[in-house]
Amino acid sequence: QPHPSNGYNNYMDHDPTANSNINNNDAAYRNILLELDESTLREMTLTHQLHNLTSVLDSLRSESESLEVRADVLAERLADSTSNYGYVHNRNLELEANCTAVS
User: Fold this and answer.
1) What is the C-alpha to C-alpha distance for residues 103 and 93, in angstroms, rounded to an integer?
2) Number of Cβ within a 10 Å radius of residue 95
């Protein structure tokens, strides 16, 4: 039927489901926008968490390197102490032998 005001067929005038289809499309569009917002928020949260984890990893890596250097220094000190102990122990044995020989 022609629309009385303009003489053209107006789909909305002829199809009673047209308004509900438009409403459904608007609702679907709003749902898509909402899902997009939620996805963007999840992405931002994950990006922030990744940044935090990267910072923690860098910090732990630096601390690990520092501890490795300290362990190397302590190992060298232990080797020096062991060497010194052996030297002093041998000197003490010589001294004891000399004292025994003198007496």
Assistant:
1) 15
2) 10
CA distance 74 to 72: 5
Question: What DSSP assignment string belongs to 6-69?
Answer: TSS--HHHH-TTHHHHHHHHHHHHHHHHHHHHHHHHHHHHHHHHHHHHHHHHHHHHHHHHHHHH
The set of residues, in sequence order, having a beta carbon less than 8 Å from that of 18 and lying 6+ positions away, is: 11, 12
pTM: 0.51
Q: What is the pLDDT along the chain (103 residues), one digit of tens a residue?
A: 444 544 445 544 555 555 667 777 888 999 999 999 999 999 999 999 999 999 999 999 999 999 999 999 999 999 999 999 999 999 999 999 999 888 7
Alpha-carbon span 4 to 25, nearest angstrom = 28
For residues 9 and 2, the answer to whether their CB atoms sit within 8 Å is: yes
